Amino acid sequence: MIDVVLDLLTNTFYMMTPLLLAAVGEIIVEKSGVVNIGIEGIFLLSSLSAAVSTFFTGNPYIGLLVGTIIGLLSGVLHGFVSVYLRGDQIIAGVGYNSFAYGISILTLIYLWGDYSGSPTVPKIPVIIINFGGGVSLTITPILALALIIAVLAWWYLEKTSWGLKLRACGEDPRAAEAMGVNVFRTRFYATIIGAGLAGIGGAYLSIGWLGSFTRTISAGRGFIALATVAFSNWNPLLAILGAFVFGFADGASTYLPILLQKITGVQYTAESYLFLTIPYITTLFVVSLIMKRIRLPRALGKPYIKE
Amino acid sequence: MSNVESLPRRILQSIIGFVRGWIESVRVKKRDYLVAAVELILAGLTGFLVAGIVLLVMGYDPIWIYSVLFRYGYSSPGYLGARSAALMMTGLAFSIPILAGVFNIGGESQLYLGALTGLVIAYYTGNIWLGLIAGFIGGAAWGLLIAALRVYRGINEVITAIMLNWTAYYLIIYIILKYLPNPTQSHLSIQIPENMMLSYSSTFWLAVLGAVIAYILLYYTDLGYKMRIAGLSPRTAVYAGFNPRKAILFSMLLGGGLAGYGGALHIIGVASAFDTTMSTVFGLGFAGIGVGLLGRNHPIGIIFASVFYAGLIIGGQFVELYTGAPPYLSDTIIGIIVIALAIPYAYRMMINYITLLRGGGK
User: Fold this and answer.
1) Mutate which of B108, B150, B166, B337 to disrupt the A interface (most A C-beta within 10 Å)?
2) Residues of B with CB below 8 A from A281's CB?
3) How far apart are CA A150 and CA B234, in angstroms?
4) Closest among B195, B203, B184 to B270, alpha carbons compared
5) Is the pLDDT of residue B360 over 60?
6) How far apart are the first and last CA of chain B?
7) Is residue B272 part of a domain?
8) What is the DSSP letter of B275?
9) What b/e sequence results for A237-259 when a residue is b if at least 16 CB atoms lie within 10 Å of its CB, and e otherwise?
10) Would you say residue B204 lies in a domain?
11) How many domains does chain A have?
């Protein structure tokens, strides 16, 4: 029994890491008044670039770095389009997702001639806590990083004057400008930092979790991160809980069929696809339970126009 | 006697009146059309330019690839038309809700559902028309779910749509493997017999029919008018005495239904079956977002945009054949075009700047 619980926890910790990183990043972005629904695309491009650079250097930490940089660059693009060019942020995000999908397949075919995925690459080592008797809990160091970032982001947003200024840009940019805050610059930097955090999460998908890149590696997880943001009511500390809940659903969807096969001895083929719907249905269900009680930043998604 | 004479004349007069009205509206809105044209052309050029740079970096000759893309992508009109049918419908599935203020990126799974119900009904009843109707109903029900969750539970439709997309994706693979396997080809689902399939040209014209009906509904009926008002300003809709929620529900019913109809058309007119990796339908719904934006969210514009997009997809396959370059160019190009289309303000600034340079500003 205890081994089942620990296995479920291991899977949950694996899956909550990218969700937490991207959700905390998106909270920072949205608190400043910008929406970035291109997290899915950032996940794709960052995990691809992390896998490619790890493949050629053999060092997953370089992969992590490159994936993060790609995330930051995505933020520069989205920030430029939505802050300075006053673009439609939702459409820009959708376009970025499509672009990222196209580029990732082009690169896969160009480098390895394979339409579905990359060869396996070295992964960042994990911490295994042994409880004796073959029972253990596996934790990735990136989860620890994500937790630290979540707490720091909360402290920054709620306890510092810089955080107050950033939130002012998302609530009432005109008042923020009157108080001497540079709304454009604040939003631009927030977008870059948020995308960079999503980039760490994306890199983690290939070099921390799967050990290779596949074209469905993100599989809607960028949008589950968006749901985590709504779940947390834009609070980075609550996002830890949200990421745990959605990460649990995600981890269970692959672990449950394996467990059931072990118990019942029945080999699943078609049914394993049915289990894969669990995270999405759970997300829909949880979000529809809590969505009535949330409060969005007031100027969210609206371009700021200086007079 | 005079009635018989005046009838053709009356028809002629009304046609002349219509054309005059249209020319007048073009004259009045000249600047709007100019802005639209500049936007589309610049966005398109940006898309091809950036994708060209990507190709160049990968060591291919972009000019050679683009010449193959355009030469072969549009070379067989029948197939081109049939391939554009599904894209046209998912384009409408994006654009109709956006006119009512809903951002529907669930066209992907609405198309899946329509394709599935269309396939099952057409296969078991032996009647493709029933299949097309079932496709519409399947897509409409799936689309209505998104609208209902938004209207009654306040959930952002973007999250709902993606969750439903992936749910449908895995659910349909399960259904195909479990209940609809092809007895002879293991990687396919049950198949529409060849003699039942629609011809390429009727597939295209049935899609155009859908677009024209959507056009009439949106621009020439009371309901469409209310929907567009609700999209522009929900508060105005409330003052005018109709419920913006109904507009949202109806727009998603129609949009989802058309996506489902497109899915059924794609199965009955082009693909004949699902495959177990869903590659026959994957991406057709997401492509609809690009089609809708390229068509400027107007049903008639969407007809042309879908043909353009279908050509890119077909041409991409020839690119692989003739140049050895990867075939999936269309997603990259369209992705950049969509990003570029998100920034109308930039183009307006550019046009203002150009008029200023010419000493105009009138």
Assistant:
1) B166
2) 163, 167
3) 37
4) B203
5) no
6) 53
7) yes
8) B
9) ebbbebbbbbbbbbbbbbbebee
10) yes
11) 1
Is the residue at A45 inside a domain? yes
What is d(CA B94, CA B102) in angstroms, rounded to the nearest whole number?
A: 9
Burial class from Cβ neighbours inside 10 Å (0-12, 13-18, 19+) for residue B24 reads exposed
Structural domains counted in chain B:
1
pLDDT of residue B255: 95
Compute and round to an integer the Cα radius of gyration of chain A: 20
Buried b (16+ CB within 10 A) or exposed e, A226-235: bbbbbbbebb
Phi first, then psi, for residue B199 (nearest 5°) are -75, 160
pLDDT given for residue A294 in this prediction? 63
Cβ neighbours of A186 (radius 10 Å) = 24
CA distance B3 to A230: 67
Mean pLDDT score of chain B, rounded to an integer? 86
How large is the average pLDDT for residues B145-160? 87
Taking an 8 Å cut-off on Cβ atoms, the answer to whether B159 and A105 are in contact is no
- Indicate the DSSP class of residue A294: -
CATH value at residue A54: 1.10.3470
Min Cα separation A160/chain B (Å): 30
Domain containing residue B136 = 81-308
Burial class (CB in 10 A: 0-12, 13-18, 19+), A290: middle
- Residues with Cβ < 8 Å from B314, sequence gap 6 or more? B72, B73, B74, B79, B80, B83
Write the DSSP symbol of residue A120: P
Looking at the domain assignment, is residue A222 inside a domain? Answer: yes
CB contact under 8 A, B346 and A87: yes
Cα distances (angstroms) measured from residue B154 to each of A210, B9, B92, B95, B362: 35, 55, 24, 21, 45
Of A101, A219, A226, the CB nearest to B159: A226
What residues have CB less than 8 Å from A184, skipping those under 6 apart?
A83, A84, A304, A306
pLDDT at B70: 86
**Residue pointed to by tokens 């295994």:** A128
Q: What does pLDDT average to over chain A?
A: 88
pLDDT in tens, A86-106: 888 888 888 888 888 888 888
| pLDDT of A197 over the 60 cut | yes
B chain contacts of residue A19, beta-carbon cutoff 8 Å: none
| A277 neighbourhood in chain B, CB within 8 Å | 166-167, 170-171
Does residue A305 sit within a domain?
no
Q: Report chain B's C-alpha Rg in angstroms.
A: 22
How far is it, in rounded angstroms, from Cα A91 to Cα A85? 13
Encode pLDDT of A39-53 as tens digits: 999 999 999 999 999
Distance, in angstroms, between B72 CA and closest chain A CA? 20
Q: What tokens were used for B324?
A: 């050895």
* B54-63 average pLDDT score: 83
Tell me how crowded residue A65 is: count the other CB atoms within 10 A of its CB.
17
Question: Is residue A127, in this structure, part of any structural domain at all?
Answer: yes
For B177, the closest of A269, A280, A288 (CB atoms) is A269
Residue B158 and residue A274: Cβ atoms within 8 Å? no
Domain enclosing residue A133, as ranges:
2-292
Closest among A4, A227, A206, A243 to A104, alpha carbons compared? A206
Distance from CA of A114 to the nearest CA of B (A): 10
Comparing alpha-carbon positions, the chain B residue that sits nearest to A223 is B159
